Each structure stands twice: as structure tokens, then as C-alpha cells.
Amino acid sequence: EWSASEERMSTFRWLASSLKASRVLEIGSFCGAGALALAEFIPSDGEVHSLELDPFVVEFGRRFQLKSLAGKKITTNVGPAMQALQSLAAEANGHRFKAFDCMQSYFDLLWSTP
């Protein structure tokens, strides 16, 4: 599939709700369907930070996020993830992120890529 499936988005919603997440980090957002599913189930003052390399798919998905009330909770960083992750870590100020849909091999690649 080219986007998050309904099953995956349902899982995201369940996780966000069960974990009482208010600040979520999504790495590899693609068009942002998963980010929007998460944003719908976090508190009104919550945040979803999405990281995506491809500006085309971010722009494509942004149209749909803007139509949703939850879309304002989403911030997308476009470009290589390492710099954005370092910036988010510096800004975290002791706050924890809930990370979903992550694969250890992807994190290993992120940390080993300049």
C-alpha cells in the first residue's frame, strides 16, 4: 500500500488512546495519513511531529491535514531525519515522545548515516 492502511491507523489510534499520548514522533510519515490518525486521538494541546524525506508526498498529504481540525497538531520536518531528531531531542526538555511504527533497523540506519 502507498499509505497507512485503515488497520494500521486503527492501531495508531488505539495506541495513542491507550498510552494517553500527547506528544508523538512519527518517522517516515509519507503523506501523513498515520500522523493525522494519531492527531485525532491525542489531546487538543497535543503534538505530532512527523519526519519525511520527500517534499512531494508531504505537500500532497498536507491538503488533507488542513481539512481536519486535528491537522493543526501536526508539524512535519522535511529532509534527512538526523538533524530533525537532534533538534527535537534538544527541545524535548524532559518530555517524552511516544514513537509508533518504528523498526529497529531503520533507527540503526538513521544513527549510522551522516
Instruction: Report on the biggest sheet.
Output: 4 strands, parallel
Separation, N- and C-terminal Cα atoms: 29 Å
Mean pLDDT equals 81
Question: Helicity level, as a percent range?
Answer: 40-55%
Large-scale geometry:
globular
N-to-C order of helices and strands = HEHEHEHEH
How would you describe this structure in keywords?
114 residues, alpha/beta, 4 strands, 46% helix
Could you characterize the architecture of this molecule?
The protein is an alpha/beta fold. The protein has helices at residues 6-18, 33-40, 55-66, 81-91, 104-112, and strands at residues 23-27, 47-52, 74-78, 98-99. It has a 4-stranded parallel sheet with strand order 3-2-1-4, covered by helices on one side. α1 packs parallel to α2. The termini are far apart. The mean pLDDT is 81.
What is shown here, in short?
This protein has 114 residues and is of the alpha/beta class. It has helices spanning 6-18, 33-40, 55-66, 81-91, 104-112, and strands at residues 23-27, 47-52, 74-78, 98-99. The protein has a 4-stranded parallel sheet with strand order 3-2-1-4, covered by helices on one side.
Q: Could you outline the blueprint of secondary structure elements for this entry?
A:
Blueprint: H1 6-18, E1 23-27, H2 33-40, E2 47-52, H3 55-66, E3 74-78, H4 81-91, E4 98-99, H5 104-112
Parallel strand pairs: 1-2, 1-4, 2-3
